TrEMBL record:
It comes from the Bacteria. PROSITE patterns: ABC_TM1F (PS50929), ABC_TRANSPORTER_1 (PS00211), ABC_TRANSPORTER_2 (PS50893). This is ATP-binding cassette subfamily B protein. It is found in: Cell membrane. GO terms for cellular component: plasma membrane. It comes from Microlunatus parietis. InterPro entries: AAA+_ATPase, ABC1_TM_dom, ABC1_TM_sf, ABC_transporter-like_ATP-bd, ABC_transporter-like_CS, P-loop_NTPase, Type_1_exporter.
Length: 593
């Protein structure tokens, strides 16, 4: 109940804050419902006037009828346009808020949790409907106003008409029942819905065309998509059937009772115990009574739907708060470079049965160039995500300049990091922007962008483009050009080198699309630049699984199955004749003529 009140309060306050005028305009509809009650009343007055040959009654009834038709139309039009306006603005506000909240969650661990992803999917799908909140509340008000008015009119026509009103109660009660069914159906279709969308993206996105065609995956994809779509729709189809059954039952009850009561009224009129005006009013009110009970029913289910969506939004807020509470740190990162110390650091992915990293100890002085090597799945990227604060260690501590990472404001910490990553983004912007956004304050500083391009060995790529750094990237845009995988990677590397003196610079296999010799040259360039600028104190961490490229690093950390198994300089590790020496020799042999 508390969460229902919280959800309703959120919906109403957001609607009034975001669209006050439109929210007020929505009031026109309930007023219109009141005015529309004059219609059956004027018709019954007209017929009673005709029966009693009273011209005055007939003229009054006709004037009231015309006036109420015109007024109702105007009020409904004002109400409807306000409703659409309000729905769009409030829906857009919720969609923007959802994007803001998900983007500001400081870590990424929750993105491995399918339950989180299902809830987020449902919330995104229904955020537009939340815009209707105020309107739905007002509809409810209109319905209540309408019900009271229609009941009063019905009782004035004949008290037995109240039995017909009572027969509308099952229709109203069907609302919350159907809303509960709908909630369950939505939950059941969330996961297959996500799967169907993922398969659709796989089949339609241009970057997948090649593999989908070469491996002739289209048929397999289509049949999987068919199965997933069926599983996605099945709960909704079953829901529609159950709802149709329920509606039939409640309507049979309503019209059964109405037929009996109307039969009695006709008999009374024929035998002179009732008058024609009251019979007309009763006849007109039967459909009204059915209308208001149906309306009440749909309002109840709409309110339930909306509070459920608002509940999911509140769940997201709570989840974001909970995750933020796990990172209460608000300390600013140290202004000056300091040691980066890892003490017994371990990590287990949510739901995984094996640890990805365990007991890692490292102590790096400012200015150190560290290479992290290891085979696929050794834990290199996990280590980088822990150091950048994207994930929280399951065990152990990470200290930066004497302050625990857990105590730092993670957003401020990440501003002090530079980096390029294996799964970099292909920002389809103007080249200088695609590089410049690596350090937003310097985005438009052409000299800084040029320096980053040179440091990332991307200047030749850019100079060869039709408009140099002013070239639009992405062939989907007018005048845009596409780049090769390696060229995109060089742009990403240059972006990662934009921040002038970060505390840590991470290069997580940013060179995977480059050939081994180019990677080697690039890393030598980083290492030389890092040494030349050692006075900035930046700690450089280069991740690679190519052992041959890392000889120029100060120290090399060798990871194997999540453990740090060797640590030292290239010469030390070769001399030790261990895992590093063995794999170095194996890979080096591959490059000998
Ligand atoms: N999101 C995830 N959920 C569960 N397990 C994961 C996830 N990401 C990685 N892992 C597991 O964690 C381990 C370490 O993965 P990580 O990506 O850190 O390896 P890596 O050394 O960077 O590998 P590569 O060289 O292939 O990039 C692997 O066993 C991997 O299967």
């Amino acid at each position: 109940m508390r969460s229902l009140v919280r959800a309703l309060r959120l919906l109403v306050s957001t609607s009034i804050r975001v669209a006050p005028v439109a929210s007020l305009g929505c009031l026109a509809e309930p007023v219109g419902v009141l005015v529309a009650l004059l219609q059956p009343w004027s018709l019954s007055l007209f017929i009673a006037g005709a029966a009693a040959a009273n011209l005055q009654w007939m003229i009054t009834a006709a004037s009231v009828f015309v006036a109420q038709v015109a007024l109702t139309r105007v009020l409904f039009m004002i109400g409807m346009s306000s409703r659409i306006n309000q729905m769009e603005r409030v829906g857009a506000t919720f969609a923007a808020e959802i994007a803001r909240i998900t983007a500001t969650i400081p870590t990424v661990d929750h993105l491995d949790d399918p339950r989180y992803l299902d809830q987020l999917q449902l919330l995104r799908e229904r955020s537009g409907a939340v815009g209707l909140a105020i309107n739905t509340m007002l509809n409810q008000l209109s319905s209540v106003v309408g019900v009271v008015g229609v009941l009063a009119l019905a009782a004035s026509a004949d008290p037995r008409m109240l039995l017909v009103a009572l027969a509308g109660v099952p229709t109203v009660l069907a609302g919350p029942i159907a809303a509960r069914w709908r909630g369950r159906a939505e939950e059941a279709s969330a996961e297959p819905g996500r799967l169907a969308r993922a398969l659709l993206r796989l089949g339609l996105d241009p970057e997948h065309y090649g593999e989908v065609r070469v491996f002739r995956l289209a048929d397999g994809l289509r049949s999987r998509l068919r199965v997933a779509s069926r599983a996605w729709r099945r709960p909704m189809v079953a829901l529609a059937r159950r709802e149709a059954g329920l509606t039939t039952v409640v309507q049979v009850i309503f019209f059964g009772v109405a037929a009996i009561v109307l039969g009695l009224l006709v008999q009374d009129t024929l035998t002179g115990r009732g008058n024609l005006g009251d019979l007309t009013l009763a006849l007109l009110l039967v459909t009204r009574l059915q209308g208001v009970s149906g309306q009440l029913r749909s309002v109840i289910s709409e309110v339930a739907d909306m509070t459920r969506t608002a509940g999911r939004y509140l769940w997201l807020l709570d989840a974001a708060d909970e995750i933020a509470a796990e990172h209460p740190g608000r300390a600013e990162p140290p202004a000056d470079p300091g040691r980066l110390v890892l003490n017994g650091v371990g990590y287990r992915y949510p739901g995984a049965d094996r640890v990805a990293l365990t007991g890692v100890d490292l102590d790096l002085a400012p200015g150190t160039v560290l290479a992290v090597v290891g085979e696929n799945g050794a834990g290199k990227s996990t280590l980088v995500e822990l150091i950048t604060g994207l994930r929280t260690p399951s065990s152990g501590t990470i200290m930066v300049g004497g302050v625990a990472l857990a105590e730092l404001d993670l957003a401020a910490w990440r501003i002090r990091i530079g980096g390029a990553f294996q799964d970099h983004v292909r920002f389809e912007l103007i080249v200088s922007e695609a590089v410049g956004i690596g350090d937003l304050p310097q985005r438009d500083d052409h000299r800084a962008v040029r320096a980053a391009l040179v440091a990332g060995a991307a200047e030749q790529v850019v100079d060869a483009l039709p408009a140099g750094p002013a070239t639009q990237l992405g062939s989907a845009w007018p005048g845009g050009v596409d780049l090769s995988g390696g060229q995109w990677q060089r742009i990403a590397i240059a972006r990662g080198l934009m921040r002038p003196a970060p505390l840590i610079r991470v290069l997580d296999e940013p060179t995977a699309a480059l050939d081994a010799i180019t990677e080697h040259q690039l890393f030598d360039r980083y290492a030389a630049a890092a040494r030349a600028g050692r006075n900035t104190g930046t700690i450089t961490i280069l991740v690679t699984h190519r052992f041959s490229t890392v000889a120029s690093a100060d120290v090399i950390a060798v990871l194997d199955h999540g453990r740090l198994i060797e640590y030292g300089s290239h010469a030390d590790l070769l001399a030790a004749g261990g895992h590093y020496a063995h794999l170095y020799e194996l890979q080096a042999r591959g490059y000998r003529p």
